[in-house]
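Problem statement: downstream parser choked on a complex file, so we are re-checking the raw output for the iron/sulfur cluster run. The parser issue turned out to be on our end (a line-ending mismatch), but while we're here, posting the original submission so the record is complete.
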Amino acid sequence: MNRSSIIEEHFMRTRLLQRYYRALWLPVLLWQCPLPPVQYGIKHVSGGGSVKVAIPNSNAAVKTNSRFGKRKRLNVTYEIARVDGLCEESMISPYFQDNLNVRSDAVDKKSKWEPPHWQEVLRNIQEMRKNKDAPVDNMGCDKCIADDVPPKVRRYHSLISLMLSSQTKDQVTFAAMQRLRQHGLTVSNVLATDDEMLGQLIYPVGFWKTKVKFIKKTSQILKEEYNEDIPDSVQKLCQLPGVGPKMAHLCMNIAWGLLTGIGVDTHVHRISNRLGWVQTTTKTPEATRVALESWLPRELWDEVNHLLVGFGQQVCRPVGPACSTCLNRDLCPFGRSQTKHSKKKQ
Ligand code: SF4
């Protein structure tokens, strides 16, 4: 081989290598595309072989044939395929792993919405509630349960007090529970009591006639299916007549000591919307529960119900909230709008 052919061969190889490595940038370009934040990796690279980019949840495939020079053909295949079994973690280059972390962090941050200044707002509510002198503090459902009865009966008391508390003031629920306990609040005793008598015992709780029917039906189910105990899951509790998610979550906490979700009643629902603690206005307590649980740290779930119920009874009332004296008046969107409104009037 003469000198000129050696130089020509050398240049040809150099050009070939340049084009080949340029072609390897395609996976990088693919990475920049707005694809889902999933695992990417180069499966196999070899001279004149194939390059595979694995993307889960996609069956798309891109194949590129490139002609390099006149004398040799180099096929470089890019394949986009499901990651299952194809893209193991060890196969992902550190470059892609770093980018994956950045992208998943970005997604986490994006999905992790939380209301501005919520810690400060919460501290202010804790300050306003420090005396613990709201009706819920002394006459809430957890205060309606007898201490001197077996655990099974205590759990039944929790459930009945929660059923009575719906659409009813704490004072009225507490008084009705006192009368029921004096009468004998057990599953068998309630079943043995006629509807009229039961109605007299719980009157004037809200919707007392309907509640008489619910209590009777529930007690019958508890006798037949739960050996006079109450169900131990939210799902099963919600199957009882007159028991909804709010009651079920509170019941799991009070009766079983298990924290399964935030108990959102009308106070928690109203205040969360006034404070802007939900990303978009919610129409139902259940939607508020989901919205709150999406950002509020779990260790506060237990406290927040009690805190907001009492706050709603004393300060952030349904009608005529005391915004002018509330510590959150400058942080709360509803409070600010009230202040502006009253200034305009003056
Ligand atoms: S400023 Fe008014 S609406 Fe806002 S939390 Fe206080 S009392 Fe409620």
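For whoever reads this later: The chain has two domains: 3-111, 118-345.
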